[in-house]
Amino acid sequence: MLDSTEAAPPVSAPAGEEPSVRLPVPAGIGRALVLAAVFVCAACGLVYELQLIALADYLVGDTVTQTSIVLSLMVFAMGIGSLAAKRLRRSPSFSFGMIETLLALAGGSSAMVLYAGYLWFGEARPVLIGYSLLLGVLIGAEMPLLMTLIQRIRRQDAGGAMADLSAADYVGALTGGLAFPFLLLPLLGRLNAALLTGVVNTLAGAAVVLWLFRRDLTRRARWVLLAAGVTVVAVLLAATFWVSPLESATGQAVEADGPAADR
Question: Are 202 and 73 in contact (CB under 8 A)?
Fold first, then answer.
């Protein structure tokens, strides 16, 4: 879920001002597409968060403690990411594209890396803490960049723009929060759910940057983002072939170690 409390919106300008970037669609449709991207990114972000909590319960145990640790670290890191994004707003399109690509790779691979860490080291806590911080920083960097992008389409007062972004953010988070336990886990399982979410996250970011804001990018920047996105999608899809053996090996290791509540 995006961090709306830490956003630093650009200086407002009168509503209806001419856009500062050329779009392939009218400004109204462009704003709607950015809000749709906010919705998808928020849903993916919450799925990553719930995934970490579910894996902490499965691999570590002590649900209350691990949930508190994951949530606290992610919220803290989101604030850090929001502050760091101030330096990225000079090239918001490219920066947002790279942030989404990195977030998709990190979030999509999180479950498999946690499983692998548990198998190799018999301990998932260090990896869990690392991913909580990494995902939090990347999620926190989204909102300031999205605020900058939507204001470049058609400037409006900062409060109105924030209200629109926050509404899309919260509805997306609700959708992701419901989809994870009722749709993704039953149909796909932990590992495939994370991988699929990463693919969706990559495509959402690419749609905004490489199509809607493509004229805001140099040719080199477009190729860099395209290559990065294709690579991430290929890696996540290729990882599906390792899901079954990794789940089987981890399940056996967890059973051998005893109930999570006893660890």
Answer: no
Q: Is residue 1 part of a domain?
A: no
Q: How far is CA 42 from CA 11, 21, 156, 171, in A?
A: 24, 25, 22, 8
Please report whether residue 248 resides in a domain.
no
Count CA within 13 A, CB hemisphere, residue 190: 23
How far is residue 113's CA from residue 7's CA, in Å, rounded to a whole number?
30
Determine, yes or no, domain membership for 6: no
What gap in Å lies between CA 18 and CA 152, rounded to an integer? Answer: 9
CATH number, domain of 225, equals 1.20.1250.20
* pTM for this prediction: 0.88
What residues make up the domain containing 133?
30-241
Query: What is the Cα–Cα distance from 47 to 232, expressed in whole angstroms?
Result: 18
Number of independent structural domains in the chain: 1
DSSP state of 6: G
pLDDT digits (tens, 9 = 90+) for 104-119: 999 999 999 999 999 9
